[in-house]
């Protein structure tokens, strides 16, 4: 991809403004994910509260990116790689905003969980999954900033691991709930947390796909390997009648 | 039978209304156009874009042999209209220009009445047998050029008294009065305001139902708005030719990318 300067230098400045906003937004979302998971693990309610409050700044940045991109489209009529850049930026900002929402939801649930007895090994497993997603997010954003096609492809395929971690957690929580119904409330919250992290992984895959589109002009069309089989797994368990209506 | 007909028309379209092979143009010793190969589709709009002096207007003028009138200009290579060599000695350039009409950058109505501007072509080509016939041709052409309603009550006023946009539409009416098969437009909107430009663009859309339209434009937005195919010329070379959508979202050649995104190339 050509990153030569425009003849109209104001065009470059506009693009740089948008890129800086997106980089800042990415940084905030990454930090929110890390903090939300740490708040869960350390039962730090103040940190969880800070994550919840921090989501406003993320939302505001998304809005600002929307305004700046709309302005760029209206005033500069971008074409080719510039057009793809603007489109990709809008979609990436939307994906990051969703990830921010998940982090906020995670923080809210961690405040509830802090009032309950801990589930053995759960927060460690969640943290490992969160670390994996955070690394994926960092790589996706690096791929965007550096226009690194290889890294973007790697992120796209890497979601498989996150899905598998989620499968494992799903079974773990089922086991805990079957062992002792008093675990159900906490496990349900933990399960939503795991699901939220898994959804973040999907949005990050979407970001990687936008980076691929930005660089090559084409969205990847081959099916990526998926490993979230819990929709099928549920059928087996309902037959046992162990957990019918949550 | 019907299917055969369809297949043939698709094949004819694939070969192009106009096809050029190895076209070279020299102005004296200046090599203005190098080895251009292109097939221009029928009933579609093709835009030629590129920086000044890239050869796009030169190539446009090859298509109706307007370059013949420029002293010191030599055109080599093969250009065919419906498979017919336009440089064949049996081809009369005047007849060719009736089939391949042209509209220029600046509106250039003849210093005659609106009616006579439009009637001029059909008259010299003997396309209307009677005054009534001619009235029909004039009205039809002015209607297709979206000018009829503006001028129906003053057909015998001077064409030069119209506004710029109207004059350009008058020139288009004049160009289509001989029912050409191809309409060449050399920056037809560069002297017009945005409203008149929009009217001409709307007209180009309609004309493309009947003719093959080729437009040279410096406005990338105009090229992307009106055309289905875009050709990018640079330093006398045809760099890239493809679907307008592809050229404007994902061009293949970096020179095209740099030009359309306004980068220093």
From TrEMBL, chain A:
Residue ranges of every copy of the PhoU domain listed in the record: 22-109, 126-211
UniProt KW keywords: Cytoplasm, Phosphate transport, Transport
Top-level division of the source organism's lineage: Bacteria
Localization: Cytoplasm
Pfam families per the UniProt record, alphabetical: PhoU
InterPro entries to which the protein is assigned, alphabetical: PhoU (IPR028366), PhoU-like_sf (IPR038078), PhoU_dom (IPR026022)
GO cellular component assignments: cytoplasm
An annotated GO BP: phosphate ion transport
Function: Plays a role in the regulation of phosphate uptake.
PANTHER family reported for this sequence: PHOSPHATE-SPECIFIC TRANSPORT SYSTEM ACCESSORY PROTEIN PHOU
Protein family membership: Belongs to the PhoU family.
Subunit structure: Homodimer.
Name of the protein this chain belongs to: Phosphate-specific transport system accessory protein PhoU
Organism encoding this protein: Paracoccus alkenifer
Automatic annotation (TrEMBL), chain B:
The keyword Nucleotide-binding belongs to this UniProt entry's keyword annotation: yes
Gene Ontology cellular component terms for the protein in this record: membrane
Alphabetical list of Gene3D superfamilies matching this protein: P-loop containing nucleotide triphosphate hydrolases
SMART domains assigned to the protein according to its UniProt record, in alphabetical order: AAA
Keywords of the record: ATP-binding, Nucleotide-binding, Phosphate transport, Transport
Segments passing through the bilayer: none
Descriptive protein name: Phosphate ABC transporter ATP-binding protein, PhoT family
Organism of origin: Paracoccus alkenifer
